[in-house]
Amino acid sequence: MWYNYLIMLNSLRLRSKMCLPKAIGIPCSGLHSTKIANTSAYTMISFFKFFPIVNPEQVIQKTKEEFSARQYKGTLYVAKEGINGAFCIPTYELDHFQHVLSTVVGSDLSLNIGQALDENYTEIPTSAKKFGRTADTKVKQSKRQPPFKKLLIKERAQVLTDGLFQTNHNGNSKNDTDNVVVPEALELDWFQSGIELDPHQWHESISTGLSSSDTIIIDCRNKYESDLGRFEGSISLNTRTFSDSWSELDRILSKKDKLNTKILTYCTGGIRCVKTNAYITQKLGFQSNHVKRLKHGIIAYENWVASGGSSNVLDDSKSIPISHWKGKNFLFDRRRLHDSICERD
Predict the structure, then answer these.
(1) Could you tell me the CA-to-CA distances from 146 to 48, 108, 130, 304, 340 in Å, in that order?
(2) pLDDT for 190-237, tens place per residue?
(3) Which of 102, 107, 147, 313 is in Cβ range 3.0-4.6 Å of 88 for a Cys bridge?
(4) Is 191 left (phi over 0), alpha (psi -120 to 50) or beta?
C-alpha cells in the first residue's frame, strides 16, 4: 500500500514540473512558448496590409471567431483595400495570432512588435527584457488599464480614411475659404509608394538629410501628435485629420525640384506614409527612388534605439544610438503617450 502511495506522489510531482504554465488553457504541449511568457505577460502588436479583399465579411467572420475564442483585445478594420489593426495579446499567443492572420491575408504580413508589458500592463524596460526580468526600479508597478477594453472587428469603407474623393486639386491651403472640392475619386496605387527604410537605414538617412539642402523630412501625422514629439528637422503638416494632408502637401512641395528633391516621411506605425508617398510620387510627380518612408514608423524606430541599434551609431555614454526622435509618441490606445528611451533614461 505504501509503495503504491509513493508511486502516486512521484507521478504528481512529475506532472507539476511538466505543466509549468499557470495561465488557463495552456496545454503542456505548449511549453516551447512559455520562455517568452516568463519575460513579458503581454505584447503590443500593430499591422496593416494593402491588398484587394473581395469579401471583407468573410475575413471579419474568420478573425472574429478565432480572436474571440482566445479573448484577444484590440481593433481590426477590414476594407476592400486591405486591413489595419492593433492588439495587446498574451505574449505566449504570438505564434497563434500570426498563424490566424496568415491564413486570412497571406504569410507576407509583417507584424510591428511594440512594447512588452507585464501583468499590470506596465512597460517592461529593455534592460529588464534582456535579462528575463519583469520589473525595474524605475517603473511603477501599480495596476494600469489594459490598452484595449474589448475586441472590435468591423468593416469600413477604407482601413485608413484619406478623403481623396474630396481632395482640393487647385493647390490652395486647407485654410483657404474658397477651396474647390473635386467630387471624383483620385485613384492611386498603394503598391507604388516609394522606398521603405528599416530603422537603421532611416537613422542614417536622417543623419545625412539634416545637413542636405535637397532633403525634406515630412511628419505625416496630425498637429496634436506632432506638437508632442517629432524627428529632428522634420516639417509638420499641421493637419486636424489625415484627410487634410493633400492640400498641405501641395503647398509644401509646390516649389520643390521634382527630379532631385529627396523626401523622407514618417508616421506612428507606417500606414499613413504609404498613402502619402503614393500621392507624392503619382500625383505630384516626384521620383519614386527619392521618396522614402520609415518602415513600421516611430514605434519601430524607438524599439531599435532601445535595443542598442547599430554599433556604428552608438553613443559611448549611454550605449544606445543618439536618437533623432525628440519628445513623446502619441499612441492610439488607452496608453496615449509613450516616452522616448532618451527621456526615460
Answers:
(1) 22, 29, 23, 24, 20
(2) 999 999 999 999 999 999 999 899 999 999 999 999 999 999 999 999
(3) 147
(4) alpha
Q: Which domains does the chain have, with CATH numbers?
A: 36-155 (3.30.70.100), 164-298 (3.40.250.10)
* Banded model confidence at residue 141, pLDDT cuts 50, 70, 90: very low
Pick the closest to residue 119 from 97, 98, 135 (CA basis): 135
How far apart are alpha carbons 37 and 41 in whole angstroms?
6
Integer Cα distance of 86 and 88 in angstroms? 7
Q: What average pLDDT does the structure give for the chain?
A: 76
Stretch among 10-24, 53-67, 250-264 having the lowest mean pLDDT = 10-24
> Are 116 and 122 in contact, with CB atoms under 8 Å apart?
no
**Which of 268, 242, 243 lies closest to 337 in space, CA to CA?**
268
| β-strand partners of 292 | 195, 264
